[in-house]
Amino acid sequence: MIALLIAGILIIPLYAQEAEPAMEPETSEVQEIEEVQEVEEVLEVEEVLEVEDVEGIEESEKEWAESETDTIIVDEEMKVLNAPEGTKITLGENEVLIIEESGDTVRVKLGSKGISIVETEEGTAINIVDMEEQEGDEPEAPEKPGKKKFKPHYAGFEVGLNNYFTPGFQMSLPSDELFMDLNTGRSWNFNVNFLEYGLGLGTDKVGLVTGLGLEWTNYVFDDQNNIRKNDEGVIVEYVPVDAGNIVKSKFNMTYITAPLLLEFQIPAGKKRIHISGGLIGGVKIASNTKIKYEISGEKSKEKVKGDYNLAPLRYGVTARIGYRALNLYANYYLTPLFGENGGPELNPFSIGLCLIPF
After folding, report:
1. What span, in angstroms and rounded, lies between the C-alpha atoms of 212 and 155?
2. What is the pTM of this model?
C-alpha cells in the first residue's frame, strides 16, 4: 500500500505537467483566427478604398465629359487646365507644370526651369532655359522667306490738260463748231484716285488693277463766248447781252471714275518701271458753266448748272507709265462729250502727271 501511495504521488505531478501542454493548441487556434479576421478586414478596407478611387475617377471623367470648360478639378487644391496654347497643372495658387505648344515649338516648364523643343528643317533643337527670364516672351519661329505681293500703281493726285478730237482725230474744229475751241494751256484736268486694288497673276510683276477716283474737267474757251442749250435742246454758242470784255469762260464737269488695267512691272535697279493700260469708265455727278465779263466797266459773272447734254455714262481707254517720281497718264474717251444730236461730236482726252502717289 505504501508503495502504491508513493507511486501515486509521483505520477500525479507528472500527469499534471503533461496536461498543461494539451491546452496550447487551443491558444494557437485563437491567434490564427484573429489574424485571419485582421487580414480579411484589411483586405475589405483596401477593396473599399479601391472602389471609392475608381468611383471618384469615373465621376471626374464624367464631369470632364459634361463640362463646357477645359478645366478639371482633381480636388480643391489641384487643377488641370487644357487651353489652345497648352496644358497647365496648378497646385493652389502656384503653377507646377506648364506645357505650351506654339507651331513647331514645345516648352515644358517645371518650376523656374524648363525645356524648349524646337523642330526645324535642319533638325530638332533641345535647350534648357530659364523660364522666369523668358516669361511673357513668345517663342521665335524660324523666319520663312515671304512671297512678294503685286503692288499696283493707280492711287494718287494727278494733274493734266484737257482737249478733244473730232471724229477724224483732228484737234482743229469745223467753222460751225469754232465756239468749242479751247485754250488748252488753261483747260485743266484734276484726278484724285483715292482707292486702288491689285491682283497679281501668279507673280508680283504682272497683275490686274482697279479702283475708284474723282475727275474734275475744266474746258476754258478760247473765244469771247460760252455755251447754252437752245430751244431745241442743242448746244450752241452763248454770249451775254451787253457783255464787254470776257475775262474767263469755263465749262466744268465732275465724274466718278473706275479703271480696269493690266499692269506690267519691269525691274530697273532697285525700282521698277510700271506700264499699264486698259479701260476706264465714268459717271457724271455735276456740270456747270461759268463766265466772267465786264458791263459798263463793272465786273459781273454767271454760273449756270445743268446737264448740257453730257453723256451720263462714259467709257474710254487709258494708259500709264512711270518710274520713280515720274508718272504719266493719258485718257481717251470713246463716248462723245455730248449725247446723240445734242451738240458737236467731240471725244475728250487728257494727258498729265501723277504728282503725289498714295
Report:
1. 8
2. 0.60
The pLDDT profile of the chain, 358 residues, written as one tens digit per residue, is: 444 444 454 444 444 444 444 444 454 444 554 554 554 554 454 444 444 444 554 454 455 444 444 565 545 555 656 565 555 656 555 555 555 655 556 665 655 556 566 655 554 566 666 555 555 444 555 545 567 899 999 999 999 999 999 999 999 999 999 999 999 999 999 999 999 999 999 999 999 999 999 999 999 999 999 999 999 999 999 998 877 789 899 999 999 999 999 999 999 999 999 999 999 999 999 999 999 998 877 888 999 999 999 999 999 999 999 999 999 999 999 999 999 999 999 999 999 999 999 8
- Order the strands of the 105-110 sheet from edge to edge: 71-73, 78-83, 86-91, 94-102, 105-110, 113-120, 123-130
How does DSSP assign 216-240, residue by residue? Answer: EEEEEBSSS-EEEE-TTS-EEEE--
Burial label for 277, CB within 10 Å (0-12, 13-18, 19+), is middle
Cell of 323: 518710274
260 in Cβ contact with 278 (< 8 Å): yes
**Domain range summary for the chain, segments of one domain joined by +:** 69-130, 156-357
